[in-house]
Amino acid sequence: MIIRTALIEDAKTISAIRRQNGVREGVLALTSERLDTTTDFLKSLSNDDRAFVAVENQEVAGIAVMLKNTSPLRGHSAAVAIMVDPAYQGIGIGKALMQRIVEESSTILNLHRLELLVLTDNTPAIQLYKKFGFVIEATRKHAAVKNGIFVDEYLMGLVRPKEAEQC
Amino acid sequence: MLIRPIKNEDAEQIIKINEDISSSNSINLSRVDFTNTRKLIASLSPLDHMLIMETETPPEEICAVLLLRVDPQIYLRRLATAELMVASKWQGQGIGKALLMAAIEMAEKELMMERIEVEISVDNVNALKLCKSLGFKVEGRAKDWALTNDGKYIDAYMLAWCRQTVR
Fold first, then answer.
1. Looking at this predicted complex, what is its ipTM?
2. B33 is in which domain, residue-wise?
């Protein structure tokens, strides 16, 4: 498996993964989501944002994005989202992607804080995030929809200790 | 007191209110930039709702501003964020509460929102009290959420109002 920066040409595979059952609900995609949504998203990334894909057997098997917060008071932090093709789940792809994100956030971007949202029933993902030091900070009631009902979501945060920062 | 939709001409007064509040002790965790109110008003989409509370007798004076944003990515999940600004001289008189109440009512009965979110800096006791009195619940606390003017990180309470469901 290799981790590399996502390219516009990856949009087709990423879009297909986003629309799959089991992924769609967690990433706020829709069955009707057009390819343009993903292409436009990849094109919109700024220099402070990151998008990586994991490639397994020459195929994009997962993607991770890190979007730096743009609000003036929140520039020290970024939002993270990871998704893995269900066919490739459970073989360490999410872990490798998160590893790259966390490294990039500290060594290149020197961010103080990362945050992410995850459905409260997505145990494998929550366990993975916890391994990297993310803690559950809030339970967001009815913040997502799954199979026709409102479901809850966790806000998880990872804060770097002050002494680890460069400035 | 009168509650009405925003007009382009309101920008001047809102900029003054924002400058005034920004110099106070409590951190305004606003995700939008009220310093550039003209641009903000011009860029409002059909998913953005901006209400003004002003005095009824001339000369009309804006006392509070509220921005309710239906999340554009996930509006189908019926989620909105709210931001409220009350001019310093009009604080402590229930004006913010009345305006936020009007926005909740609109969100609940017209927009059919399931959920309204606010973020409050942990030092902003008055805002916390106000939101709690209107049925917002603290869902958690995010560490080092924002950066203060003197370069320190401050935590934020994550609050949400949720539609009462009859089961």
1. 0.87
2. 2-118
